[in-house]
Design goal:
Elements: H1 2-33, H2 43-48, H3 66-81, H4 83-90, H5 104-115, E1 126-130, E2 165-169, H6 179-185, E3 190-195, H7 197-211, E4 220-221, E5 239-244, E6 249-255, E7 260-264, E8 274-281, H8 283-288, E9 294-297, H9 305-311, E10 313-317, E11 320-321, H10 325-328, H11 330-351, E12 356-360, E13 389-390, H12 398-404, E14 410-412, H13 415-419, E15 425-427, E16 439-443, H14 448-459
Parallel strand pairs: 3-6, 3-9, 8-10, 9-12, 12-14
Antiparallel strand pairs: 1-2, 1-13, 4-5, 5-6, 7-8, 10-11, 15-16
The structure holds 2-acetamido-2-deoxy-beta-D-glucopyranose (NAG) (6 copies).
Length: 460
């Protein structure tokens, strides 16, 4: 009898322990799936929450469960103290395995995550899916913000199937772009694109997305506030800045194809050679970075001998003409500039806590049977004929990925996903004077750069 009673008691104990375990796992699981369901965050808090990604967006008071409370404390502590490491993960930039030693706290939380099947979010990994709600704006309607040469609806191109695709990241929630929510989130903020013509495409795309591709007479031209005015004899200004008065949001673009500091060697001679300081950031960046809240950098397609010669750019390093043969090659010079500019911006983030910085990876070209100036073309019109998925963890742009490793600047990794879209360039319908060359570098708008902006907006 006595033994039987003890036995019953033990069974009961085991039962209680098992039930508690199941309950706890269920609780943790539900919370993992939908932390919002049991929290009461204001929009403000969500906007200001550290971009942790790996860590859990935990409220201080979610339930009475002491385990949860402990985890919340941990996540709050680590998200403050170990922010750099955590942000690396979130950026989708650096594959997790390459991030050096996590603190025990982070490992603890990750352990729970992975045991529950949730993977680290990497926006660059995923697939293209057909979507009837695309494009996000009309190529006819957005005349005001699109260069005619990039608006394929305004060219003789007869096929538009490339407009109907959306990027679906594998492990990230990517909410549908909503322009009023976007502008509200960007209230009193300035978004700056600085880079080459691919950056300009992304800027025009964001203008169309933010206005819905309409005329928007209320949008104010504030280029003058940034010195962006057309100078005498110039084809166009060096950039544009527009302000949405209702939310006081400014979106601007500055043309800086190399991102580095350019200094005419003779101010009085418009045809003077220009010192291209590989190790210094563009003057515009230095002058205005304190006004920006979101900065998106890009470079890449002007790094060739032809462009350097045509622009009369002479490489300088350390304030002197470069004599180091190891730097003189285009690939090395570009590498030096990307590392230098990224390092400078990353340093600025400390003194500009309001700023979030992104570096867009290289936009792929699709010339076949020649290059941009030698009859190369990209005539395929069938979307995703070479596949629709990106499965790799790292970026295809090793230079940018390497430069940003360990930094707070996020990588906007668009290379591999854009590589799948050879049908979405201007192709042979480009307006290029008498030349018959195809443009397999720039993208039709609306089109692929809209997706880059969706990835950007999801990470702001
Ligand atoms: C946490 O809960 C307590 C008691 O319910 C409440 O007084 C307090 O304001 C809550 N704190 C937060 C941050 O919600
Ligand atoms: C969180 O930080 C506070 C103050 O910095 C500290 O007192 C507390 O012990 C920390 N909690 C954990 C779980 O590390
Ligand atoms: C608009 O936003 C800028 C920051 O981008 C801020 O300096 C300025 O005070 C704001 N103006 C108004 C009228 O709110
Ligand atoms: C680029 O520069 C960095 C930093 O100087 C260097 O570590 C890296 O090896 C360089 N990469 C190439 C391809 O030159
Ligand atoms: C221009 O391209 C079209 C179509 O590829 C071709 O038929 C034509 O011969 C080309 N014209 C010139 C001048 O190269
Ligand atoms: C980079 C950094 O701040 N690492 C710290 C993360 O947190 C652990 C534990 O608090 C510290 O030991 C690390 O130095």
């Amino acid at each position: 009898m006595k033994g039987g009673h003890a036995y019953g008691l033990r069974v009961w104990h085991i039962f209680v322990v098992l039930v508690s375990l199941v309950l706890m796992i269920t609780l943790l699981w539900t919370w993992e799936q939908n932390p919002l369901a049991i929290t009461l965050h204001t929009a403000q808090e969500w906007y200001h929450k550290p971009l942790s990604g790996v860590l859990v967006e935990a409220p201080i008071n979610s339930t009475g469960d002491s385990k949860l409370t402990k985890r919340e404390e941990i996540s709050l502590n680590t998200s403050k103290k170990n922010e750099t490491k955590v942000q690396l993960n979130y950026a989708g930039a650096v594959p997790v395995h390459s991030v050096p030693s996590y603190s025990p706290e982070v490992q603890y939380i990750q352990g729970i995550r992975s045991s529950l099947g949730r993977k680290v979010c990497n926006y660059a990994k995923g697939r293209w899916v057909a979507d009837k709600r695309r494009p996000l704006y009309s190529g006819f309607g957005c005349k005001k913000w699109l260069s005619p040469m990039w608006s394929c609806r305004m060219t003789p191109r007869p096929d538009f199937s490339y407009e109907g695709y959306r990027w679906q990241p594998e492990n990230c929630d990517m909410p549908e772009f909503d322009r009023s929510a976007f502008l509200r989130k960007m209230q009193d903020k300035t978004i700056a694109f600085v880079g080459d013509s691919l950056g300009r495409q992304q800027f025009q795309s964001l203008m169309c997305m933010a206005t819905g591709g309409e005329e928007s007479p209320e949008v104010e031209d504030v280029g003058w506030q940034y010195g962006l005015v057309k100078r005498r004899g110039a084809l166009r200004p060096d950039g544009w800045a527009y302000r949405f008065p209702k939310t006081n949001t400014t979106i601007l673009y500055y043309w800086s194809a190399s991102l580095c500091y350019l200094e005419p060697l003779n101010m009085n001679d418009p045809l003077s050679n220009v010192a291209m300081h590989l190790d210094r950031p563009a003057a515009f960046l230095q002058q205005f970075i304190n006004r920006f809240h979101v900065l998106i950098l890009n470079t890449g397609h002007h790094w060739n001998r032809g462009k350097l010669t045509a622009n009369r750019w002479i490489m300088y390093v350390g304030g002197k003409p470069n004599e180091d043969k190891r730097v003189a090659g285009i690939v090395k010079a570009k590498n030096l500039t990307i590392y230098s500019v990224a390092k400078w911006v990353d340093t600025q983030l400390v003194s500009h806590p309001q700023l979030k910085a992104f570096f867009t990876t290289i936009s792929p070209r699709h010339f076949v049977n020649g290059d941009w100036n030698s009859g190369g073309s990209c005539d395929n019109t069938i979307p995703l004929s070479a596949g629709s998925e990106v499965v790799q963890d790292g970026s295809s742009d090793l230079t940018t990925e390497g430069a940003l490793r360990g930094m707070k600047i996020k990588m906007l990794d668009i290379t591999a996903l854009s590589q799948l879209r050879d049908e979405a360039h201007m192709s042979r319908y480009t307006i290029r004077g008498t030349k018959n060359d195809s443009d397999c570098l720039h993208w039709c708008l609306p089109g692929v750069p809209d997706t880059w902006n969706e990835l950007l907006v999801s990470q702001i």
